[in-house]
């Protein structure tokens, strides 16, 4: 695939699921990957496996709710690999619940990670991209960035927000900076573990998670967007399991 080899790609939420899949796939295609998340043991293992397979990977503990930590994370790519070409805003959580469950701390957590975390990623990487007049954001939303149903109200709101932020960003940045939104349907990952109500977790799995994409399907969509010539900006990719019709 063109335009990926040698690129430095920073990925938030790279310790499991989709972020891990993106890191492994891009490293196989020759990108230098910078992995960030809170679980160091997972990051270390994934980075070691990528390196053992002949790829280039480094990692850093990262909490995306801290703008300072996200800034240092974006700088790490520049410090260790000399540049930053792509920033993947992927970290997220999905503690589904009904509004009248009043799980206010979970609402706050989703807004802090899914929305403010993405804004922190933009604030960290955009100055680097602007200095080089080159770069690409990949923002991982969800089919919930255009669909809302009972229990997904706040989660979908965070993803609708990231879709709005992505399109505004696309229009504001220079002609040479790309903004890509990738909206996955249900995908194999640890995401359902963030649902605190066991009944809702079962319901979500039974209703929406019978057909699951492998994380590699989202990684391939990300690779497609990066691999385009620099004057081609793939703005939105929606990827669902073929059998998933009700989201
Ligand atoms: P996982 O739970 O497997 O991965 C979530 C990742 O986010 C983990 O690496 C986790 O790492 C990280 N994370 C969570 N909170 C923070 C934080 N405060 N700071 C840094 N990293 C954090 O789920 P997915 O891979 O599915 O989720 C990735 C993205 O994909 C999310 O944005 C999700 O909304 C989106 N998505 C997923 C779908 C699915 O069906 N799987 C469908 C549609 C969208 P750690 O705990 O180590 O910090």
Automatic annotation (TrEMBL):
UniProt cross-references to InterPro entries, sorted A to Z: NAD(P)-bd_dom_sf, Sc_DH/Rdtase_CS, SDR_fam
Residues annotated as transmembrane: none
The organism's place on the tree of life at top rank: Bacteria
EC number: 1.-.-.-
SUPFAM superfamilies the UniProt entry points to: NAD(P)-binding Rossmann-fold domains
GO molecular function: oxidoreductase activity
UniProt KW 4Fe-4S keyword: no
Pfam families for this protein: adh_short (PF00106)
Keywords of the record: Oxidoreductase
Entry similarity comment: Belongs to the short-chain dehydrogenases/reductases (SDR) family.
PANTHER family referenced in this protein's UniProt entry, alphabetically: DEHYDROGENASE/REDUCTASE SDR FAMILY MEMBER 11, DEHYDROGENASE_REDUCTASE SDR FAMILY MEMBER 11
Protein name, entry field: SDR family oxidoreductase
Native species: Sphingobacterium populi
